[in-house]
């Protein structure tokens, strides 16, 4: 009941096998989104009850066309944004609450990365981390994500991207962040 799905058409599904082999990044299986039509909807059960109490860990790669929005559990043009990540004019952002560009992650890159975003009262803010390093923080905002807003690659702003792992907690996991990141990094060997 927590699976991302693409039931509209098989042409819009990401590729995981090319007819010869399983697709990989850094030697591990990957779902590849083509940037022209691929996206997956997530069930509302994946959405947190509020964007001020959530943690998301993703292993992702921007493939080629840098503009687009990857993992989303919030609306676009509303105050319930959670874009992990969105790329605009070759700059990558963590979109949160009222801003699609809440935290500037830096120039878009095609490197495989572990991107973590956490918001909650334990941490005291919303913060984005890339490969374990904080990219900045913003004040907590309160909003309930819109029903139907969860997508792995946003259908209205398609991204050429690869995903290997997506973990969503409906809680502030800041006290467990380094342990979760360490386990993910041990498996994927993303950074030292």
What does this 3D model show about the protein?
By secondary structure, this protein is mainly beta. It is 6% helix and 43% strand. The protein has one helix at residues 177-188; strands spanning 24-25, 28-29, 31-34, 40-41, 54-62, 68-73, 81-88, 91-97, 99-107, 113-120, 125-130, 133-138, 150-152, 160-169. The chain has a 6-stranded antiparallel beta sheet, covered by helices on one side. A 6-stranded antiparallel beta sheet has the order 4-13-6-7-8-9, with no helix packed on it.
Give a brief outline of the structure.
This protein has one helix at 177-188, and strands spanning 24-25, 28-29, 31-34, 40-41, 54-62, 68-73, 81-88, 91-97, 99-107, 113-120, 125-130, 133-138, 150-152, 160-169. It has 192 residues and is mainly β.
Key phrases:
14 strands; 1 helix; 6-stranded antiparallel sheet; 6% helix; mainly beta; single chain; 192 residues
Beta-strand content: 35-45%
Number of strands: 14
Average pLDDT for all residues:
94
The number of helical elements comes to 1
Instruction: Specify the oligomeric state.
Output: single chain
Strand order, sheet with most strands:
3-14-5-10-11-12
> Share of helix among residues?
under 10%
Structural class: mainly beta
Main sheet makeup:
6 strands, antiparallel
Approximate shape: globular
Distance between the termini: 35 Å
List low-pLDDT spans.
none
Task: Report the radius of gyration as a whole number of Å.
Answer: 15 Å
Would you list the SSEs in sequence order as H and E?
EEEEEEEEEEEEEEH
